[in-house]
Design goal:
It is built from 21 helices and 23 strands. By secondary structure, it is an alpha/beta fold. The strands form 5 sheets. A 6-stranded mixed beta sheet has the order 3-2-7-21-22-23, covered by helices on one side. Helix 9 links the parallel strand 14 and strand 15.
Length: 660
């Protein structure tokens, strides 16, 4: 029996990781085929949920050449091992296919991750403001402190937004930009000076720069309903250097791995220009350094030039171009700016202009004629109805029912339109945006309207392909377990009940939307999100049994061992030494160095004398080597209550290398 906590192999792996030897776990996720008949890696003694209907449960999984070799009992998998097979005892933990976040902006997010102070998961506004205050002190001029989405006022105990006065008091001299969903941004006085907003600044179209009685900007920017002013203002801030953008992307991918994510559908995004802003991810893909699979869609950047963009891209690219780890998926999520209905539930539903149908038809007809699938942002049923009129018109001339196109969001889609989508061969990618802004929706439209917003269970019952994503990083948190918790519990992050019990999903179904179901949306059905022979060797070993833990704890789930294409890309607890080293976040003042990423609930807060360690709830390991005692689990060591006077228990027999 081999376990991560015992055996000579464990000791060797720990020592190798401590000295930066990476060949054992591999810094990249390649799959090099060999003639050897035995498995490369076997996970045993687990509770394996396969999402393969023919073999739904198992205790062990064997991986070879980056794929699943076999699934079965411990005894069956043991027969596939030889003296070169690595066997890991997962200690009866729940084992699942790696999660697919079908709507995420990881390419843009990766370029900026190291710049951003994330309030994702922070449950006290006071703590969030303290983080802001401390980060402002360490951020050098002319850099900004950016809090760019992933949080909601309802997650805080105080149930409110910060005030401009509080932000200015926390950071009197360093520019601060705080984005709340796509509703508003709050800038302190230093940020107003940095971007040049004065009493003479014109009001941007579709937005408001709030002003005081003297006409001076207060620092509040409101999207009413156009979010362009929020995008544009954020884009004025300093950028990371290309070298730091590489580091930032590596950090963000590892953070996704920590949460069990192994695959992402990148939905493009505002101010994400193709191909210029894809240079970093292209380089990492060429160098085989990706630790998540990425299927990306191309997003036009300028209104009235959408068709020209797609015409140019079709000449040089085609869907499926790339590899199983990094490929072009199609067009969208923006197809025509005149068809984009921003989901600001603080504002009335926007009316799409009369030009919508003509603009959209030109793009869709061109894409369909060239065999390109698309994804389309559509929040409201009214927008979906008009888009479907266009799709049906194009379909009469150019069949689209085999392309694999889909709508994103669909919060208020009706059964009639779900059926129209099904008949056209489309799908629906839903996200847990309601978990962040459900209270806003209820305030405007009422509790009864919220009960099926979006109607996920009805979509499944009607036979439409459905998947689940986060829409991270700006309008939502990238934590996929918040999305799964939302569908199971029917609650927002603030605890508000949104859905009656009969409209909620059981845990297995909710989890399937982020595993097996996600494969259809990247044309990987049968290969991704399932543990069966021949499927991708992407696995997450969870820190808790999400099938049985109290419902509220689902949202706190992480992975203790994440595998992509058969290679370990993240490890914690006893599996930490198996993970390839990650360089420290750069630059050295990056918020990621101090706070990490998603802030988990329920951890012990240390006293002020411990400094920044009190915020290391979920900080990633950013060291170049593992400690022989604690591996990469430095946060666990920092929070340990074992007294240092007990050298054997705390420092270990070989000495502790933690520097927390």
């Amino acid at each position: 029996m081999t376990t991560p906590a015992s055996s000579d192999r464990r000791d060797f792996l720990q020592a190798a990781a401590a000295f930066g030897i990476t060949t054992l776990a591999g810094p990249a996720v390649s799959a090099i085929k060999s003639d050897r008949p035995a498995a490369d890696l076997i996970l045993r003694n687990g509770r394996v949920t396969t999402f393969d209907p023919k073999h739904p449960e198992a205790t062990a999984v064997a991986l070879k050449d980056g794929l699943v070799m076999a699934v079965g009992t411990d005894a069956q998998m043991a027969k596939l091992a030889d003296d070169r097979t690595r066997t890991l005892d997962v200690g009866r933990r729940r084992v699942i296919p790696g999660l697919t976040d079908s709507h995420n902006h990881i390419i843009r997010g990766g370029l900026n991750h190291n710049l951003e102070l994330r309030w994702d998961g922070v449950r006290r506004l006071g703590a969030a403001l303290e983080m802001l205050r401390e980060q402002a002190r360490r951020t050098p001029a002319p850099q900004w402190v950016r809090v760019v989405g992933g949080w909601s006022e309802f997650q805080f105990e105080e149930k409110r937004l910060p005030t401009l006065q509080e932000i200015n008091e926390a950071a009197p001299d360093t520019p601060v930009f705080v984005l709340n969903l796509y509703n508003m941004a709050m800038l302190n006085r230093a940020a107003l000076r940095a971007v040049g907003y004065t009493k003479d600044s014109a009001q941007p179209p579709g937005a408001i720069i709030e002003r005081d009685a003297r006409g001076e900007p207060t620092g509040l920017l409101l999207a009413e309903p156009n979010a362009f002013v929020l995008y544009n203002t954020l884009n004025m801030g300093p950028k990371l250097s290309p070298e730091n953008q590489v580091n930032s992307t590596l950090q963000f991918m590892r953070e996704e791995n920590r949460l069990g994510v192994t695959s992402i559908g990148d939905a493009g995004g505002g101010f994400q220009n193709y191909p210029d802003d894809y240079n970093v991810i292209d380089t990492l893909a060429r160098e085989n350094k990706l630790t998540v699979r990425i299927a990306y869609n191309l997003f036009p950047q300028k209104a009235k030039s959408e068709l020209a963009d797609f015409q140019r891209w079709v000449r040089s690219s085609k869907p499926g171009q790339g590899t199983d780890l990094y490929k072009l998926n199609g067009a969208g999520e923006m197809l025509a700016f005149s068809a984009a209905d921003f989901e600001d539930f603080l504002q009335p539903r926007p009316e799409m202009p009369a030009s919508m149908e003509g603009d959209l038809e030109a793009v869709v007809r061109f894409l369909a004629g060239n065999g390109w699938p698309w994804r389309m942002h559509a929040t409201y049923n009214e927008t979906i109805s008009r888009a479907l009129d266009v799709f049906e018109k194009v379909h009469r001339d150019i069949p689209i029912d085999q392309l694999g196109w889909f709508f994103d969001h669909g919060e208020t889609v009706t059964p009639a339109n779900i059926e129209r989508i099904r008949k056209l061969g489309g799908g629906i990618a839903v996200q847990n945006r309601m978990s962040m802004q459900g209270e806003y929706f209820i305030r405007r439209y009422g509790l009864k309207a919220a009960a099926e917003t979006p109607p996920v269970k009805r979509m499944i019952e009607m036979g439409v392909p459905v998947t689940l994503g986060t829409d991270a990083t700006r309008v939502n948190s990238y934590n996929p377990w918040q999305a799964i918790y939302w569908l199971v519990s029917g609650r927002s992050i603030g605890g508000t009940v949104l859905y009656p019990e009969e409209r909620r999903l059981d845990r297995h179904t909710a989890l399937s939307l982020m595993t097996a179901n996600g494969a259809w949306f990247s044309r990987d059905t049968g290969k991704k999100g399932v543990l069966k022979p021949g499927a991708f060797g992407d696995v997450a070993v969870l820190d808790r049994d999400v099938m049985t833990v109290p419902e509220d704890e689902i949202q706190d789930t992480t992975s203790v061992l994440t595998i992509v294409a058969g290679n370990v890309v993240h490890g914690s607890d006893g599996f930490a030494p198996l993970a390839p080293p990650l360089p420290p976040a750069s630059p050295d003042w990056s918020p990621v160095r101090t706070y990490g990423g998603y802030q988990a609930r329920g951890r012990v807060k240390l006293g002020a004398s411990t400094g920044d360690a009190r915020y290391h709830y979920a900080a990633m390991c950013a060291c170049a080597s593992a400690c022989l005692v604690h591996g990469h689990g430095h946060t666990t060591a920092a929070l340990s209550q074992v007294p240092t006077s007990d050298p054997q228990s705390f420092w270990g027999a070989l000495g502790c290398a933690c520097a927390v």
